[in-house]
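Handout, section 4.2: multi-component inputs.
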Amino acid sequence: MNEDERRSTAAKGEPIPRPPWRLVSGASAALILVIEFAFFALVLAPHDGRPNPFANFANIALILKYSSIYGIGAIGAALIIGAGGIDLAPGSVIALASVITGELFVVGGWSLPAAVAAGLLTGLLTGGVAAALVVRAQLPPFIASLGTMGMARGAAFVITEGKFYDLSGHLPASFAPLGIALGLWPGVLMFVAAVIFHVVLRHTALGRHMLAVGGNETAARYAGVRVDRVKLFVYVAGGGLSALAGVVLAVVQGQGKADLATGYELDIIAAAVIGGASLSGGRASVVGAVLGSLIFGVLRNALPQIPGGTYADRLIIGVAVVLIAVMDRLAARQPR
Amino acid sequence: MLPESPAVTLSRAVVRYGETVAVAGVSLAIARSHVHALIGENGAGKSTLLRAIAGVTPLDQGTLTCPPQLAIEWVPQELILAPDLTVAETIFLGRERRGRGRLLRRAEMRHAAEVALARIGCGALATARVGDLSLPVRKQVQLARAFCAPADVLLLDEPTAVLGAEASEKLFVAIRQARNRGAAVVLVSHQIEEVLRIADTVTVLRDGQRVSTDPTGAVDAATLVTRMVGRPVPSLGRRAAGAGPVLLRLRDLHAPGVRGATFDVAAGEVVGLAGLVGAGRSELLATIAGLLPRSAGEMEVRGPLAFVPEDRARNGLIPTLSLRENIFLPAPQRWPQKWRERAECERWIGRLHIRARGPEALPDSLSGGNQQKVLLARALRRTPKVLLLDEPTAGVDIGAKADIHRIVHEHTGAGAAVVIASSELPELLALCDRIVALRHGRQVAIVGRDQATESHLAALITGAERSPAAAAERSGP
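Output:
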């Protein structure tokens, strides 16, 4: 074996690439979003001088409105994944929260704030159950949340018995809580939640402890971090955020039903991962998770406007997840 | 091929990690039938050189020449094994023996694993789960991989750092056997005595450069140390122990792996825990730290307590947090202030001589000794009155070791009680006022520093000498 051959076998064994550039996870998500937006704005620009059907305020507000359901859930997913866990329940919790809110408001005659509070509470409870299974019963998070996912969805079906609640019929036409138009509420809530949990993750002891537990749970425990509390917090917060998304969906779209948000959990996890959360734990970004959900939101909004794009959006989103994750992986690798 | 011709030749080798030059133009010939030791301080480039020879890290400049089909076995210092595999599966991981239909030959591999384990004197069962084994035994399993097939070149990075004396001796026998059948052995070690005994040739590295290469018969330990550090190292001075109030009191303490411990540690005192693998040293410390449940007995701790566990990669460091965040864990304030932490972290870096790019460096970019100092900083930051250290100098170079010993002295001088578990008896003898000998979880004797000798302690912990306590134990019901 000569020198060059040796080098090439060495490179196969364990390459230590030295990229000349390094992107910060959150920053790369922002960059992708900008490029993506510019791309669709150009592609969808009409040639005859009509207004751009994609790059206009009404459409951006629409993207924000629909993305924020995923975005709110992805904030919770980022916290849980950063702390070394995983949560498969968001889609089911969204449905359950919408159903509880709907049942109490439409059938039970509760006031809207009370019904909303009850919806949120179910999310916190579901998160609490997941945390108890992980902390007390020592179940792997995947299994624990597989269980809560089934239970939440099942409870939603039991409550509705297949029917759906039309909340919009019971709300005034120009319903605008706190003077903010109903359509803007999802975006506003996502923004507020992002600010709060960004601060929690980056600027509090709790946030550092989350990433410590995700990075090396044994070492965190040995150092004196109260690991169980940290896990309880992330799962309860994750459940609460999913429920918030569900309540928003119920009130803004005006309906609560048991088969709402089916499969959302995977999009939510994908958004958190695109935003820089590492599935092996110890790394996560709240801002990144929100950006990740916006990246997907733009795709979902723009693709149907391209001929043949309607049916391709899931395929393209799947490819995009892989591409972005690979890019981020390559960028994050650095020599020891 | 002539046996005298070198197995591997490095010529003006240069390896860079980013801006750091780890190996700066080293030329070296590794001969067959020879044990070649590489010594040097942390960051001298020993491990990188080994990785380069193993072909894991490519050279940036220079050449690496070796004959074709050379069987190289490299055992890295880091002990990263899959916990759910069995010992035999671990030894054959990635090189499984297969029969017809690509099916695994499990029995054959189990048998070969047993042979390899016996060769290096490891008592683990081939069918045991790796995650259930203690750190030193896991290290032996990792080493057994390299001794399974006859290799032409054996690259051993700090193989004895976590092994006890007995296991090390058995490894040395295996190393000599490999050498005698014509293998080239490259041994990285921090133990100079061990190097002088085992190696035929010793090369000193400093700051990525080769300082010297000599036959081991032609140099002495003091010369090597001076060459490694670049300055003479002062030998450890012992301060007189001023016995203060008792800060740690144990009475017949029982816990998983601990079957009765009774001793006091006073302020300003250092007590050592001596024992073989499985004697319960780590378990005793973890019990005192409150990490293992106490099943019987009394325990009293006065004042804040800090514990630096064994196996820093598994129990100590968070790889994804910065050096600063690792030191400030758990975070002392509900709302940590980065600038304040950074300033304090800089002070710790200076005080403990931590070699790092800065407070925001990740632990993986630090050498073993510096990682250990980071954990010490985490413990000392809370100014503990009771400080528990489990193998604080395992895999740490001479300079860092002297630093760690100095830190222990400073801390005891300031009125703390310190308990140190170490598999190195000379280290305990140099540091401790009293040494507690443990065997199979039982406390067999407490030896004051005036009466303690290495041979006496070795006899106590191996059971070669009947202590009064053990004799009483045996005659009991």
